[in-house]
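Side project, low priority. Logging it here so it doesn't get lost.
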Amino acid sequence: MKMKEVTERTGLTERTVRYYMEKGLIAPHGQWRNGREYTEFDETDIARLKAVATLRELGFSVEAIRSMQAEPGLIPQIVAERRQAAESESKIANETERILSGINADDADSIEELANRCRAYAARPKMIPNPLPLPKADEGNESGMGQRCRYVPIGIRDKWNWGAFLLPVWWGIGNRVYQAFLCFIPIVGIFMSFYLGKHGNELAWKNKYWEDEEHFRRVQRNWAIAGFAAAAIIIAIAITDRVAMDRANKAAAERKAKLIANVENSEEYINLIYGREKWNGQIGYDESGWMDPFYVDPDGYYRIDSYMEIYYDVGDYGYSLPSSPHLERTLVFSNGEEYNIDAKADEKLNITELKIELDKDATERNRQEIESQRDMAAMEKEHTEAAKECFEQCEAWRRILGTDYEYVDKPGPAEAIRNRTDENGVETDEPYIIGFAANIRANGKLYFVLHKTWKKGNGARGLEISEIDEQTRECTLIERVE
């Protein structure tokens, strides 16, 4: 590699690198090309330069470094000598600081005056030092200095902190990282836990004093163990809770089925539904478009309103089964009658109380609805028959459909409205029927006949006859009676 890359990787200047080369501390390979020597550095040279730079920062001379490089056996001796020199230098520096801090040099008008003041202050007796001095922090240990901490050991700075992630608040209190209290804020707390997991080591190192890296790692390892233990306990409790709830719910479901069977086998219940068949069909409309088929046979069917069936059992919500399960059910008959059933049982699911009461108000509402539906069906039938008679005499009908045609499905009104407002704006339940619609097969084709606003006696004006494409189901208008 070239000199430029070496300086970038080591942080040294080119002049310093060449100086170390002259002193023989490194010996990179050289090649002669075009009459010039080109120096090539390798990874060994980079490592050697970094080592030399570090030792130079610690005060080792070039000669001392070269001696240790040439004879590694001299390293202990040279290091000891440098340590003694550093202690002497430190004493001199401390004494110099003491003297210069104690004199007033503002009005000294000559170096002789300055020197006299320094000698006089040096002759003074020194203050008795604190018998219990604070322990001197290791070199580079700036832990506990907060924002003034400029250096966080690389070995811990980028590590994930499981204790901070799993126990953010408690970890924050123990490590003086009070940002962890943000975890109490909904939603924000989730992101804060991840933030502490990633940056927890750096925050803890800056906010609390640590003896050294090993002390820090040991404490954080204990926090991680506590976090995993707490997580394991929570998971175990959740699994146990879920299993217990599933068992309770399963037992409750079995009890509910048994209680329902006991109710349906009771003499009172059997007498209530005697002669009727349980309705299993889908609730819908008959061919008239309005009548609910459940009500077609007034004495034929009964049904259970599922949304009105309620079962009380502590097993649905807890882990213990109740001493008196309770069932409420609503039965509706096809003649409109509606019954409320209230059953209670003992812990063995034997029925202790069974109430069957007719809901008169609901029954009256049901019968009014049935009557209204039947009136609507009759009106639709009358409306449709009148419309058929009117349109089948229409010239366009006969010309396009002829006389040999059949209705694919029974015709009906184009629209039927209930719960509307009348011409005076008053709300009414009186049905309002308009229009006519039918699918008709004639001449080997399928047609759709529609009149949107037909009313009895107003003729065929506005009748539309369209042909249906049986593959695409698209309608093409053939003629509209004007």
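Brief comment: The chain has four domains: 3-98, 146-236, 263-367, 375-480.
Revisit when time allows.
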